[in-house]
Automatic annotation (TrEMBL):
Pathway: Pyrimidine metabolism; UMP biosynthesis via salvage pathway; UMP from uracil: step 1/1. Residues 7-208 form the Phosphoribosyltransferase domain. GO terms for biological process: UMP salvage; uracil salvage. Keywords: Allosteric enzyme, Glycosyltransferase, GTP-binding, Magnesium, Nucleotide-binding, Transferase. It catalyses: UMP + diphosphate = 5-phospho-alpha-D-ribose 1-diphosphate + uracil. This is Uracil phosphoribosyltransferase. It comes from Acidaminococcus intestini (strain RyC-MR95).
Amino acid sequence: MKMQIHVVDHPLIKEKMTRLRDKNTQPKDFRQLLDQIAQLLLFEVTRDLPVRHKKVTTPLAETTGYELDVSGITVVPILRAGLGFLDAVMDLVPEAKVGHIGLTRDEETLQPIKYYCKMPKDKDAEIILIDPMLATGGSAEAAITMLKQDGYKHFRFMCLVAAPEGVALVNRSHPEVPIYTAALDDHLNENGYIVPGLGDAGDRVFGTLE
Ligand code: PRP
Ligand code: URA
């Protein structure tokens, strides 16, 4: 089956991703780059959202403008690393609601373990799941499955780096969910890390590296 993935191919993203991947980039700069890439990605992730006409009066004339119904959007960071994306996304869609899902990978089995979930009630919302890394795909797959079981219906997934293994799992389990990424990398190593990747995203965002 052909992989279904939108790789947002843009010189600004490529250049910022290169600095982000660099192991010498410090958490402060890492977070700033993450914010910038998140906003560039969101441009593509939201491209097909509907707009309504709205009148606007400029200093010269009245004209037709547009408004986005962002109240129908729920942004859902997968904790912990997904929080690194949240502020930048909310800057662009400030009326969106926010849900939180806490998942962490068991270091040995690589299976996701759920430890938190708090979602807004609107089951018809367009859910934008955000998590920097799509590695085995277990976390993304589990998050979408969990939300579907609770009655949520519309999803799109945004990440920084995806591995082919993770894309394949999400495509197989949730073929209708579009995946947007800044980079599609080569493979997973024996510890389930994306190669070349950028290491542990949560540790790099929050400065918890040993
Ligand atoms: C990272 C990342 C994803 C997950 C991806 O989180 O933020 O949620 O790994 O891996 P997967 O596709 O194989 O499931 P991690 O479990 O390291 O937790 P953290 O965000 O708390 O550091
Ligand atoms: N989680 C990360 O933070 N990085 C990877 O490469 C894989 C999973």
